[in-house]
Amino acid sequence: MKNYNVTDIKNLVDTAKTALVVSPQLNVDSIGAALGLALALKKRGIETKVYCPQKTDQNYSKLSGLELLSDVISSSDLVVSLDYPLDQIEQVSYNDDGGRLNLVVKTKANAPKVESNKIIINNDGSNADVCFMLGDEAALGNNSAITAKGNWIFVSPTQASKAWAKASLIDPDAPFSEIFTFLLPMIGLELDIDSGKNLLIGLRVATQSFSVNVSPESFEAGAVCLRATQPETPSTPAINQMPIENVEKSGGMPLGTNKPNPTPTL
After folding, report:
1. Cα–Cα distance between 118 and 116 in angstroms, integer?
2. Between 162 and 248, the higher pLDDT residue
3. Which positions ≥6 away from 182 have C-beta within 8 Å?
C-alpha cells in the first residue's frame, strides 16, 4: 500500500462544498480517475463537475458518472481584470445605464489612461471550493488560465512543479487510476462499486491488462478496486439473534419443552 503525504489535500477537501475536476487529456486512465474521484466527492455531499476539452466516444461508455463530464467549462462569474497599477486607481463603482451595467474605474489625478488592451475579460470556471488538475494544464489551451484562481490540487504521474497549486501529488511510477485508488481512502473518500469500477477500467487500460508498466502496487490497486466492485453479501443472522418465534420456521434449533429428556435404552 502506498503512503502519500496528503495532509494539505485532505484539508482542502474537508472544507469544500463544491469541486471541479479537470482532465486536460482525453484517455481512459485520466477520465476513469477523474470520474472515480468525482463520484466519491459527490457521495461525500460535495457538488462536483468534471471538465475535459474533448468529447468522449464509445470507448468510454462503460464508465459510470459520464453525466458529470462536460467538454465546456463555464461559470456565472464574469471577471474583469486590469493590467494597471492598483495604487493609481482611486475608486471602482457601477451604474445602471437603461438596463445596461457600466463598471466605472476612476483613476487618480495625473494617472495614465487605462488602455483597452490592458483590460482582460474572463468567464472564470474555477470558482469551486476545491479544484483537481489531472496532468499538465497546457493542454487546455486558452482555458489553462482557470488555474489563476481557486484552490488547486495538482496530481500527475510526471514530475512537475506548479506555482498555482496549493497542494501537489506526483507519482512517476503509477498511472492516474492507481494514484487515485490509494488517494481516495487517504483523504476520507469512499471507494464504492461505481468509483471502483471506473478506476479498475482505467488501470487495466493503462497497464494493458496488467502486462506493461506494472509494479506490485499496481496489482494491489487492482485488488482494491475489484473488492470495491463486489456487492455486499447479506450475512445470515445467528440463531441467538433471531426472534424466538422465527427459530422453528427457519429450520434452526427445535423449541424446548418442559418434559424431561428421555432415558437412553442400553
Report:
1. 5
2. 162
3. 1, 2, 4, 217, 221, 224
For 185, residues 6+ apart whose C-beta sits below 8 A from its C-beta are 191
- The strand order across the sheet containing 47-51 reads 69-70, 47-51, 18-22, 130-134, 152-156, 165-170
The enclosing H or E element of 262 equals none
Question: Which pTM does this prediction carry?
Answer: 0.72
pLDDT-derived band at 265, boundaries 50, 70, 90: low
For residue 116, what is its C-alpha cell? 483597452
Instruction: Tell me how far apart the alpha carbons of residues 110 and 126 are, in angstroms, rounded to a whole number.
Output: 37
CATH class of 15-76+124-228: alpha beta
Predicted local distance difference test score (pLDDT) of residue 96: 83
The grid coordinates listed for 152 are 488547486
Inter-CA distances, 54 with 2, 29, 133, 152, Å: 31, 15, 15, 21
- CA 124, 125, 131, 135 dihedral sign is negative
Q: Could you tell me if 49 and 173 are in contact, meaning their C-beta atoms sit under 8 angstroms apart?
A: no
Return the half-sphere exposure (C-beta side, CA atoms, 13 A cut-off) of residue 207. Answer: 24
Three-class secondary structure of residue 57 per DSSP? coil
Q: How far is CA 162 from the centre of its chain?
A: 19
pLDDT of residue 261: 52
What are the cell numbers at 79?
471577471
Domain boundaries, the chain: 15-76+124-228, 78-122
Read off the DSSP letter of residue 45.
T
